[in-house]
Structures are given as structure tokens and as C-alpha cells.
């Protein structure tokens, strides 16, 4: 699969991973782990607003919010994740998805292929169970976006 079918920000991330050796890819994943934004104040202390992705080996919770994009046109979707600092792989995957998808429209997010995590080139370096966790994160985001989009169309 080529990256030209991905939204621009996500395609750039995938290209960055693909340009590196396997050990360097793991290092980049750790950088994404450190770059994952904290939950905003309004979501702290409200676990009922977050949905757990049970397929992840470490506790990962996420939610989405709609907002009008700066261009005044379509609704964009903001992504929020909660993952413990001691789970760098899970946080790294969340960081990749946050940076690559945050603020995009429903159509842009829903167009991302379900097997996109495999494009990062980590399948030999990371256990299949952890890769399934990232695929599950993407699937959960897409399901939540599709449901929200149906409500607002």
C-alpha cells in the first residue's frame, strides 16, 4: 500500500518511519510517546467520557470531539488519549494517530485503511498483540467518528 492514499499528516509520519532502520523506528515511536498531549482539564476526572480500547495490552482510553474547522467548512474531529507513561509503545501508537488524524474531517479519517499500522514497519520489532492494539485504536476512532458523523449529517 502506498502512502498517497493517506491524509497528508499521516502519510508524512508513515514516510518518516519507512525511511528509518528498525531500531530507529522504535526510537521514533518513543518520541511520539513523549509527544502525546495530556488530556485537557475538562476531561480529567471524568473517566465516563473516555472509552477503553481493551485490545491494547496497556490501559488506553480515548474519546473524540467535533469542532468547526478554522476554514469554517466541515466539522473536524479532535482526538484525546489517556495512556500511562510506563506504556511507551501504546502511548507511541496513540501519539502517531493523534498527530496524523487530529482535526481531520470524518471523510479523511474514515478513508484511512484499517491496516495502516502495518505501514510503520514495526511488525518485526513489536509483538503482534501490540500491533493489534494499534489497529484496534484506529478502528475505535473510525467507529466513533462514523457514529458522530451520522448524528450530524
Please tell me about this protein's structure.
The protein is built from 5 helices and 3 strands; from the N terminus they run ααβββααα. It starts with 7 loop residues before the first helix and ends with a helix. Helix content is 44%, strand content 12%. By secondary structure, it is α+β, with helices and mostly antiparallel strands. The mean pLDDT is 91. It has a single domain, classed as Alpha-Beta Complex (Sufe protein. Chain: A). It is globular and about 45 Å long. Strands 1-2-3 form a 3-stranded antiparallel beta sheet.
- Mean pLDDT comes to 91
Helix content: 40-55%
CATH architecture: Alpha-Beta Complex
- Report the end-to-end length measured between terminal Cα atoms: 31 Å
Any idea what the shape is? globular
- DSSP E strands, number: 3
Structural class determined from secondary elements: alpha+beta
Question: Compute the gyration radius: what is it?
Answer: 15 Å
Beta-strand proportion: 5-15%
| Count of DSSP-assigned helices | 5
Give the strand line-up of the largest sheet: 1-2-3
**What top-tier CATH class fits best?**
Alpha Beta
Total number of domains: 1
Looking at the structure, the CATH topology is Sufe protein. Chain: A
Q: Pick out the low-confidence regions.
A: none
Report the major sheet.
Answer: 3 strands, antiparallel
Helices and strands, in order, run as: HHEEEHHH
Amino acid at each position: 500500500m502506498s502512502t498517497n492514499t493517506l491524509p497528508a499528516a499521516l502519510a508524512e509520519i508513515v514516510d518518516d518511519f519507512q525511511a528509518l532502520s528498525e531500531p530507529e523506528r522504535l526510537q521514533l515511536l518513543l518520541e511520539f510517546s513523549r509527544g502525546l498531549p495530556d488530556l485537557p482539564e475538562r476531561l480529567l476526572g471524568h473517566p465516563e467520557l473516555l472509552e477503553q480500547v481493551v485490545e491494547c495490552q496497556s490501559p488506553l482510553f480515548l474519546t473524540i470531539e467535533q469542532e468547526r474547522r478554522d476554514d469554517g467548512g466541515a466539522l473536524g474531529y479532535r482526538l484525546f488519549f489517556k495512556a500511562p507513561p510506563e506504556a511507551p509503545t501504546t502511548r507511541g501508537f496513540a501519539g502517531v494517530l493523534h498527530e496524523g488524524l487530529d482535526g481531520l474531517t470524518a471523510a479523511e479519517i474514515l478513508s484511512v485503511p484499517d491496516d495502516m499500522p502495518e505501514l510503520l514497519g514495526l511488525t518485526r520489532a513489536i509483538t503482534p498483540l501490540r500491533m493489534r492494539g494499534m489497529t484496534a485504536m484506529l478502528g475505535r476512532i473510525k467507529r466513533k467518528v462514523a457514529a458522530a458523523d451520522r448524528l450530524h449529517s
